[in-house]
Automatic annotation (TrEMBL):
<dbReference type="GO" id="GO:0016787">
    <property type="term" value="F:hydrolase activity"/>
</dbReference>
<dbReference type="InterPro" id="IPR006680">
    <property type="entry name" value="Amidohydro-rel"/>
</dbReference>
<dbReference type="Pfam" id="PF04909">
    <property type="entry name" value="Amidohydro_2"/>
</dbReference>
<dbReference type="InterPro" id="IPR032465">
    <property type="entry name" value="ACMSD"/>
</dbReference>
<protein>
    <submittedName>
        <fullName>Amidohydrolase</fullName>
    </submittedName>
</protein>
<dbReference type="InterPro" id="IPR032466">
    <property type="entry name" value="Metal_Hydrolase"/>
</dbReference>
<dbReference type="GO" id="GO:0016831">
    <property type="term" value="F:carboxy-lyase activity"/>
</dbReference>
Length: 330
């Protein structure tokens, strides 16, 4: 299979402990420790949490850009979920917005940013989101329902109205995450009311190609403004099943709704970015037999159509318009 001319990673995060509260790592570590042993081993979860935090020290994205270059990834969407309402953090949402803006300035033309605000912050959160879009040129909204709310909660609607007015997409987490959060709100069906209420807003189901797949496929088939990404594909499934799983997904007639994503740095100790791209595009890989134009759309084209404006060479808005050892993701 020939490599597409353009690859854009539609689902990535800064590997920065400033963006992910420690409680997130602790929950994941406890889950991993429990999976390893029927009995808790004293100190094991704490050691795992510290190890994870050490992997999240790429605060300016220099390492990420090197990995992107090795993988042939031209641009990446950085997702900045808001955990500050449910977890204590010494870094505020304003700090996180400034950090992502600084990363864009440091690496011109390489990053789009989807910024998150918990709807329970109310008007203060709405204003912060709008200011961040205006000041920094952020291009989308990141929603993290397992923090304790439905993506169709009416308190989200003011944020969706901002996205509708500016032509910005919304990416929402679906599926498992750290066990310190609430899985009840991770079902793709929960976006249905909002997708119906806001037909002009495009909603992307994060991990929809690997979690709650039947629900995600149905939403993509029957809601014109709902899409899914395949982020986390190398690690949610075993080495012997993930390729066939994706091949089956690509045979469902919704390839125009599928977006490539890696979920870096989650699973970065299992697979490098270049390895993920190679496995996906190799001759006998899950994309084997797909028309080149379909592959090009999955790897970049569909996402490009959803973004409200391009990047210019300074990394600002164009003038034309964990590491984790196993399954929990951001």
């Amino acid at each position: 299979m020939s490599r597409p001319q353009l690859i854009v990673d539609g689902h990535c995060h800064l590997a920065s402990s400033r963006c992910i509260p420690r409680e997130f790592f602790v929950g994941v570590a406890r889950n991993i420790a429990r999976k390893k042993s029927a009995r808790d081993r004293p100190g094991e979860a704490e050691n795992l949490a510290r190890l994870m935090e050490l992997q999240y020290q790429d605060h300016d994205a220099d390492r990420l850009v090197r990995k992107m270059d090795e993988a042939g990834i031209a641009r990446t969407v950085l997702l900045a979920p808001d955990f500050t309402y449910v977890f204590k953090s010494e870094y505020s949402l304003e700090d996180m917005a400034a950090q992502h803006a600084a990363v864009r300035a440091r690496h011109p033309g390489r990053f789009h940013v989807f910024f998150g605000v918990d709807p329970r912050w109310g008007r203060m959160g709405h204003d912060l989101f709008e200011r961040s879009v205006e000041a920094h040129g952020f291009e989308g909204l990141k929603v993290y329902p397992p923090c304790g709310f439905s993506p169709s909660d009416e308190r989200m609607f003011a944020l969706y109205e901002i996205c509708a007015a500016r032509g910005m997409p919304v990416l929402l987490h679906t599926g498992p995450t750290t066990p310190t959060l609430d899985f009840r709100f991770a079902d793709p069906y929960l976006i249905d009311a909002a997708a119906k209420q806001f037909p002009g807003v495009n909603f992307i189901l994060a991990h929809g190609g690997v979690n709650f797949v039947e629900q995600a496929k149905l939403m993509c088939n029957y809601r014109p403004n709902v899409y899914l990404d395949i982020s986390g594909f190398p690690a949610f499934m075993t080495a012997t099943t993930w390729q066939q799983h994706l091949a089956d997904l690509f045979a469902q007639g919704i390839n125009h709704k599928i977006i490539f994503g890696t979920d870096w740095p989650v699973f970065s100790m299992k697979d490098d970015l270049s390895a993920m791209v190679i496995k996906l595009l190799e001759e006998n890989g899950p994309m084997h037999g797909l028309p080149e134009e379909v592959v090009a759309d999955i790897m970049a084209g569909t996402l490009e159509k959803l973004l409200p404006f391009p990047l210019n060479t300074t990394g600002s808005v164009g003038s034309t318009s964990a590491f984790e050892l196993e399954g929990e993701s951001a």
